[in-house]
Amino acid sequence: MPVNLPTLDPSQLFPVAGLELGIASAGVKTAGRKDVLVMRLAKGSRAAGVFTLNKFCAAPVRICRSHLADTGEIRALVVNTGNANAGTGLDGYERAKEICFALAERLDISPAQVLPFSTGVILEPLPAAKIIDALDAAIGDLKPANWFEAAHAIMTTDVAPKAASKKIVLDGKTVTLTGISKGAGMIHPNMATMLGYLATDAAVSQAVLQELVSWSADRSFNSITVDGDTSTNDSFILMATGQAGNTEVADTHSADFITLRDAVLEISQTLAKAIIRDGEGATKFITINVEGGIDRAECKAVGYAIGRSPLVKTAFFASDPNLGRILCAIGYSQVENLDVDKLEVWLDDVLVAKDGGRYAGYKEEDGQRVLKQSEISITVKLNRGAESATIWTCDFSYDYVKINADYRS
Amino acid sequence: MPVNLPTLDPSQLFPVAGLELGIASAGVKTAGRKDVLVMRLAKGSRAAGVFTLNKFCAAPVRICRSHLADTGEIRALVVNTGNANAGTGLDGYERAKEICFALAERLDISPAQVLPFSTGVILEPLPAAKIIDALDAAIGDLKPANWFEAAHAIMTTDVAPKAASKKIVLDGKTVTLTGISKGAGMIHPNMATMLGYLATDAAVSQAVLQELVSWSADRSFNSITVDGDTSTNDSFILMATGQAGNTEVADTHSADFITLRDAVLEISQTLAKAIIRDGEGATKFITINVEGGIDRAECKAVGYAIGRSPLVKTAFFASDPNLGRILCAIGYSQVENLDVDKLEVWLDDVLVAKDGGRYAGYKEEDGQRVLKQSEISITVKLNRGAESATIWTCDFSYDYVKINADYRS
User: Which residue positions are annotated as catalytic (chains A, B) (predicted)?
Assistant: First the structure.
């Protein structure tokens, strides 16, 4: 079961003016399952995205990149579960294009104004005709209050739906932000994907939107790991409909930008952390703070070395303070000229290591106490600079192997 | 149980003239356990080594590097199990030095002629006094025919001892090579280590010996992975006593060099593969061949991405040909400008993927047949160059989690 993931309250997922969501069943993999989501954006909306760096990226990812580069006005998104349309070559690309054409025709927009997304098993042909047949039903279901249903529709083997919503004030106007995500790890069983969608009715310039999506992804979705496997389909999309009536946020030095950025970050982090809380087989939620680095990149490198180490993660599963494993991971984290004698390792408020070895005042029972918690923080102080980064991960249990060794469901 | 690892035959482990081995019990962690090994080299011997790149490297690793740089004549090695003497700071360094001094005194050599090694739990102080107390017994036990016993003495949680031996002819003289290794993965439970020792009575120049140890380590111990965790103590030492009577091998273009190199490589690979066959929880032995790369580094990067992916390894454990996971790992392997449409993926003799997707003639039952074997090869043809590399790994089972989640034994 997910680690301390609160149950979603549909009434707390605020509609975003200018964005409607519609759900349908296409039977991509399982008959009757709600597996198609269409999002329609009002005229004048803007969108920006970040995508997987996997070179075997899925056909829809390639199309999204191209459509976002082509036009300033994305008007619709279409998501299917049950099949990732990855490792499908030219044929997969053409099938994803067909879906864009079919949706564009029905919504009276151009195919380049559609962003397609797929999630599920890879190396299997996408049943595009089934998805196209379901588009009318999804369009008939379009409404702004469908976020809760949408969060369910994009789940594959997620145990719980993931969504977050917030209202802020910009320029005297109330602005809403609502987002959903899916994923039970950086990688789902069978190579399905992490997907995140965050919409606001704020007016935001395209340049600022792009800055916001990259900056917040770096500090949320790009700061989590379950198993170190980077999916073929990861996508995070930020949309702004501009219907809140605020003066367009176009200056990254303005107070409104900071307010908006903080809200985007808060929701992105909530959605990203929800993926870890629902991580495959997870029993513990682990926050790794790396401080005092020369740059953010080396802090992330140290955090990820710890966060993806099977030895650290199995020790945490067992509540065993076998903390040498953390030092070992720091040691192979590929940070140049790291002086291990200068760093400190903390477990919550317990100092574990300093001066290159175990801290003289460290007591095993203190480590044991922290390890038994379901929420644990590790803090590494590199003591060589002023930068920091935080990585979120979960432990590694029998159930991770069980979930991933099960035959493709 | 280890995967297809033959039982050692003590009569097939040939003594190496000029090298004696002695074993004793120091009670480092468990009373009565044979946990100390001393190796004594005759005058005129040479040694060369490669060590972990982990920055939290153990105190003995730092001393080995320094002693190998100081002197051309290493005369003794001392190994203890039960404690890695890593993450122990200056105090750990001094304790390892004390052991070198004590052994040097007893063997009438200088402390800089001793190489110390430790393997076991990290972040715990090394009981140096216990080890020093056991040195006389180990020295009393010194004899050339002790390789089988030595292979057992360096085990920690290895299920089986690991050794290999071979005779070749150089310059008309019979030359013997014998080696031992330990490790049940790149990392043992509790951060113990991979250790490898290979000795020959051939006469070999120091430069050639150094070349041989690096070249063969790259193609053996540095081509295996169980869990991607690089230990704090990994060491591989090549020793040459020069007692076989051959003309010193000093030219890397000579026929003798090639004969010796091939024999060193064969034994190194046997010892390295034995570690994978005895990998934590392993049920399958997997060989990953990556061909057609621009350089060896990118071939290794692709091989390691596949070989350390928990998703690939759990699918192999389940005998599930969920082969999209292999494509996904290739895709995130950080190879620059990789054109995924050009590559081919084979499972033994079954072509699985080409042209960026599943091969049209691939049948699930063919993949299933191969996956059910205990020995499986994956071949990736990058089709962009003439270089290649091979990585060996094992699958990822419930027992991996069990072994590593157990309290430190």
Answer: 193 (nucleophile)
Q: Does the pLDDT value for residue A327 go beyond 60?
A: yes
Which residue carries 């390792």 as its tokens?
A: A345
pLDDT band for position B193 (cuts 50, 70, 90): low
Helix, strand, coil percentages in chain A from 3-state DSSP, rounded to 5: 35, 25, 40
Q: Could you read off the pLDDT of A19-76 as tens digits, one per residue? A: 999 999 999 998 999 999 999 999 989 998 888 878 788 899 999 999 998 866 899 9
Greatest alpha-carbon span in chain B: 71
Q: Are A232 and A87 in contact (CB under 8 A)?
A: yes
The pLDDT value recorded for residue B408 is: 55
Classify residue A370 by its DSSP letter. H
Query: How far apart, in whole angstroms, are the C-alpha atoms of residue B308 and residue B298?
Result: 15
Helix (H) or strand (E) holding B21: strand B19-24
Tens of pLDDT, residues B148-169 = 999 999 988 788 899 999 999 9
Walk me through the domains of chain A, giving residue ranges and CATH numbers. Answer: 10-277 (3.60.70.12), 285-405 (3.10.20.340)
pLDDT tens readout for residues B122-158: 888 999 999 999 999 999 999 999 999 999 999 887 8
As a whole number of Å, the CA-based R_g of chain A is 22
CA distance A239 to A209: 8
Say yes or no for a CB contact (<8 Å) between A232 and B331: yes
Choose from B55, B304, B341 for mutation: most chain A CBs within 10 A: B55
**B55 and chain A: CB distance < 8 Å anywhere?**
yes
Q: What is the DSSP string of A226-265?
A: SSSPPPSS-EEEEEE---S-PPPB--TTSHHHHHHHHHHH
Q: DSSP readout, A65-113? A: HHHHHH-S---EEEEEEEE---SBHHHHHHHHHHHHHHHHHHHTS-GGG
Q: Tell me: the pLDDT tens digits for A200-253? A: 988 888 889 888 888 887 777 777 777 666 667 778 888 899 899 999 999 888
Interface pTM, i.e. ipTM: 0.80
SS3 A25: coil
Nearest of B230, B191, B222, B120 to residue A314 by alpha carbon: B191
A390 pLDDT above the threshold of 80: yes
**What are the beta bridge partners of residue B400?**
none
Q: Give the nearest partner residue to B123 out of A308, A324, A401, using CB atoms.
A: A324
Question: Is B193 an active-site residue?
Answer: yes
Distance CA A354, CA A347 (A): 13
From chain A, the residues in CB contact with B229 under 8 A are 309-311, 325, 328-329, 332
Q: Which residue of A has its CA nearest to B336?
A: A55
Q: Is the CB of A323 inside 8 Å of chain B's CB atoms?
A: yes
The answer to whether the Cβ–Cβ distance between B308 and A231 falls below 8 Å is no
With an 8 Å Cβ cutoff, is A380 touching chain B? no
**Which residue from A minimizes the CA distance to B122?**
A324
Nearest CA in chain B to A87: B357
CA distance B324 to B315: 10
Per-residue confidence (pLDDT) for residue B87, from 0 to 100: 85
Tokens of A69: 């580069």
